[in-house]
Amino acid sequence: MNHTVVHCGTVEISMDAGPDIADVTDQLGQIVQRAGVDNGHLMASVIGSTGSLTTIEFEPGVVEDLKRAVTRIAPPDMTYEHEKAWHDGNGHSHVQAALLGPSINLPIRRGRLALGTWQQVVVINHDKGPRKRRVEVTVIGHAASCSPRRFSESARPGSAPP
Length: 162
Fold this sequence. Notes:
Blueprint: E1 4-15, E2 20-23, H1 25-35, E3 39-46, E4 51-56, H2 60-73, H3 81-86, H4 91-100, E5 103-109, E6 112-113, E7 120-125, E8 131-142
Antiparallel strand pairs: 1-8, 2-7, 3-5, 3-8, 4-7, 5-6
């Protein structure tokens, strides 16, 4: 008998001035393990308007490429309306974070995050100074194995599965 589980957790990580990128895949996997979910979803959101979450291959080359890309898209030396209002020097940080987004939704299969071989979940601090980033996590799913239904390409809505 399947029963639905909802489990919440938090990942906290100290980060350098942005763009700084940290791998949180293991911490998220530990939350999935504690939840005891076989099949479901992990939803995670970084708290704050100058942080983001995404997936990459977490290796030095890709990390540096992503840092350079976000800096090219929203460079710190541009004029931002945010700067005119607040004079805090982080208008670029807000734009970078908004473009990548604060949250991610990942499938859980057989009790583990369903990620590619070279795919890791990363949190990014875009702010101009070091920050302690908090990622709020919700895991929802079934605690007993449930096989997702698979339909052939010929199956039509309302028809019986093959």
